[in-house]
Write a structure and sequence with these properties.
With 459 residues, this protein is mainly α. It has three domains: 10-201, MFS general substrate transporter like domains (Growth Hormone, Chain: A), CATH 1.20.1250.20; 208-257; 263-459, Up-down Bundle (Growth Hormone, Chain: A), CATH 1.20.1250.20. The protein is 78% helix and 0% strand. It is globular and about 60 Å long. Mean pLDDT is 85; it is low at 1-10.
């Protein structure tokens, strides 16, 4: 059913003024989530020191957030189809804001970890319906533009995160890293309540046992990736792998025959959707391989300081932010298969160029290669988002939106785990192995993207 409030009902997007305010509300929520991920990673040593805990224990500040997000993304996406994306989005922003306040007031590692758990749940609610919400805000002819703006916000959040963390820690203690979210979140909720559109609601209900199985399946999957990244032995990894497979098997069995399964296997029957999701996973895995391994190369091999390493990584993020809205506008006129194929080809060639750095590279040698990779990654993102959302029927926009965020997180997590494996093969050549794998993943993404030009989206 549709809401009777026609002023807020999005039939083909919102009027321009309401559209801008609605996008601002969504952008603040998504930006906070992206910024917080980068801030927490950068500030982890400072937080561990001030809480008087070990580096190994402090990793849970990051891990529990990722676990909560991935485990609950698809249930929130499915819930959005039933009760409306607007409600789930507003709940997510409010939960994230309240949890940010709890993080700022945390007095110990356990209290901070618990607050980060709820922050991850709030982030999952926002990200799970994020692209479905953007699809409802913008008219069909401007979907590419909307997804481009969305990609821009995420890229800027990740790009300014390390710098923001450094600036805040230079003048204040770590709780302020989280406290800055509170006023932003209040503004986002106030705007969202006023202008976010109501959307069509599905007639089916949420199956609680399916949601629980989904939480365990994806939670165990990310836990396994994390333990692999920290080089745990097979005595621990093997039981986790087996348990993950069991829960995924139970999940698929439980949702079999459902009209709108929580893990949207029905959408994967559409070739365009499957190829777009594969493109996303492989491209984010390539990004994860590069982003996790290159700091080791810059600091260990080249002897650069952490601050210098941050600046060397910056061209990638900046060019992603520059290219995202451009690629979004182009995707309204040109096929996503072509744009994504060009972008992933540029990314793959950029990673190969990083492998060919001279033994004592200058800042320019590194900078143009990182910028090249950023151009490729930025060129892929918005068109691929539009392809995933466009290949799903409107009634299944929630499931498609959940897959967008899930593909990103799984790609990044698998990339990080593979970096750990590369360094177990060779401490000195680990970065080179990771970049080779990254180039291969980007190459697979390129093939998958161009393959979309010759397939039909029909079931």
């Amino acid at each position: 059913m549709n809401t009777p409030d026609s002023a807020l009902a999005a039939r083909d997007g919102l009027p321009p003024d309401a559209r801008r305010l609605a996008m601002l509300s969504v952008a603040i929520g998504v930006g906070m989530s992206a910024l917080d991920t980068a801030i927490a990673n950068t500030a982890l040593p400072a937080i561990a020191d001030q809480l008087h805990t070990t580096p190994a224990a402090s990793v849970w500040i990051v891990n529990v957030y990722q676990l909560a997000m991935v485990a609950t993304l698809l249930p929130f996406a499915a819930l959005g189809e039933v009760i409306g994306y607007r409600r789930v989005c507003l709940f997510g922003i409010a939960m994230f804001t309240a949890a940010s306040l709890a993080c700022a007031l945390a007095w110990s590692l356990p209290s901070l970890v618990i607050a980060r758990l709820f922050q991850g749940i709030g982030g999952a609610a926002m990200m799970g319906v994020n692209t479905a919400m953007v699809r409802a805000i913008f008219p069909a002819k401007l979907h590419g533009h909307g997804f481009g703006l969305n990609s821009l916000v995420v890229a800027v959040g990740f790009a300014v995160g390390p710098t923001a963390a450094s600036l805040i820690l230079a003048v204040a203690s770590w709780p302020w890293l989280f406290a800055i979210n509170v006023p932003l979140g209040v503004v986002a909720v106030a705007l969202g309540r006023r202008v976010l559109p109501h959307t069509h609601r599905a007639s089916h209900k949420i199956d609680a046992p399916t949601a629980i199985l989904n939480v365990f399946a994806f939670g165990l999957l990310i836990l396994t990736f994390g333990d692999a990244a920290h080089q745990e032995g097979w005595h621990k990894l093997l039981p986790e792998v087996i348990a993950t497979l069991i829960f995924f098997g139970l999940l698929l069995r439980r949702q079999a025959g459902h009209a709108a399964p929580m893990l949207p296997v029905d959408l994967f029957k559409r070739p365009l959707f499957t190829l777009s999701a594969l493109t996303a996973v492989c491209t984010f895995a390539a990004q994860g391989l590069a982003f996790v391994s290159l700091p080791f190369y810059f600091e260990t091999t080249l002897g650069r300081s952490p601050i210098e390493t941050g600046f060397l990584m910056t061209p990638w993020a900046v060019l992603v932010a520059v290219m995202a809205p451009i690629a979004g506008r182009l995707s309204d006129r040109y096929p996503a298969g072509v744009l994504g194929g060009i972008g992933t080809a540029l990314l793959s060639s950029g990673l190969v160029a990083m492998l060919m750095l001279p033994s004592n590279p200058s800042v320019l040698d590194i900078g143009w290669r990182m910028a090249w990779c950023g151009i490729g990654f930025g060129f892929f993102q918005a068109p691929n988002l539009k392809a995933i959302m466009g290949s799903a029927p409107p009634a299944r926009a929630g499931g498609a939106s959940g897959i967008v965020a899930t593909a990103r997180l799984i790609g990044q997590a698998s990339g990080a785990a593979l970096v750990a494996y590369c360094f177990t093969l060779s401490a000195t050549r680990g970065t080179s192995y990771a970049l080779i794998l990254g180039a291969v993943f980007a190459g697979v993404a390129c093939v998958a993207s161009f393959s979309r030009l010759v397939v039909s989206n029909e079931l």
